[in-house]
Amino acid sequence: MTTSTVAQTALGVRAENLTVRFGGVPALDRLDLRLAPGKIHGLLGRNGSGKSTLAAVLAGFRQPDDGRVLIDGAGLGTPMPPYENAVVTSRVCLIRESGDLVDSAPVRQVLGLAASLRPYWDAELAAELLDRFEVPAGKRISKLSRGKRSALGVVLGLASRAPLTIFDETYLGMDVPSRNVFYDALLADYAEVPRTIVLSTHLVSEVSTLLEEVVILDNGRLVTQSPVDALRGRGAAMVGPAALVDKFAADFTVLAEERLGGTKSVTVLGDLDPALRAEAAASGLEIGLVGLQDLFVHLTAPAPKGDRR
Ligand SMILES: Nc1ncnc2c1ncn2[C@@H]1O[C@H](COP(=O)(O)OP(=O)(O)OP(=O)(O)O)[C@@H](O)[C@H]1O
């Protein structure tokens, strides 16, 4: 996708010192981050880490208590805060697990409303996705199963083709085959219309192949922001004969290990310099990138008792 296409169809985000408090307690604590336009970002964090609060601020549903968020690109001209700003919010689509849907309305009516509110709405895509997820257009929202409600959220999010589209754990209610349909549809449509996608989730291993950039939150603080490959390069996954794996892993922090007969696989943190990598490979070890899930668990693990970090 070209830079000029992205500039027309994708929004970037800049958060500076962003703070949101509930009853004086920070849910977001002095966050500084940037979401580059035209990429698929993973917003990762354990329960209560602040993902939904950040998503709500980006979509203009909530005003920061301190600091600011600026949205930029896709014809906006100048960077703008999203709160109470219809020019920005018409270009940002947040789909939440709760669905934000009127229970008494039939699906068809919900789609009609989205079509009238969303400037980039694609009715053909909406109809095609509704079909793929087998969501009946005539049924009332209140009569849909949790999974079909989630699927409808996905249809609304994708067909909106909003320059900034945020899925806040929307798809958790869907079964695995439906989630796979979502991931396929997301990638296909993203390739057709480049835009900025944020997937907020703790199902890290499932979405890891979709993501280009990752933001990890913990207790409202930014743990790290990085391209996925750079993050996965912070260590290595080694597979081979157990004794050999143990020898090469001895000097590293082991994040995860698994043993099957005489074969062992470990995930280690740390910089494996090229000479060591070459030596390990020559000895018969397979060396790969660290799994995002292992890194996520390590980076967001609770501090040990007595640790006053
Ligand atoms: N409306 C609210 N009133 C009071 N506290 C809130 C409110 N919304 C969120 N919080 C608190 O803010 C913190 C961050 O919550 P948030 O929902 O943003 O986290 P999350 O990462 O999305 O969690 P989850 O994965 O469980 O959905 C939590 O401590 C939560 O209890």
From TrEMBL:
GO terms for molecular function: ATP binding; ATP hydrolysis activity. InterPro entries: AAA+_ATPase (IPR003593), ABC_transporter-like_ATP-bd (IPR003439), P-loop_NTPase (IPR027417). Keywords: ATP-binding, Nucleotide-binding. It comes from the Bacteria. The keyword Nucleotide-binding applies. Residues 13-244 form the ABC transporter domain. SMART domains: AAA. This is ABC transporter ATP-binding protein.
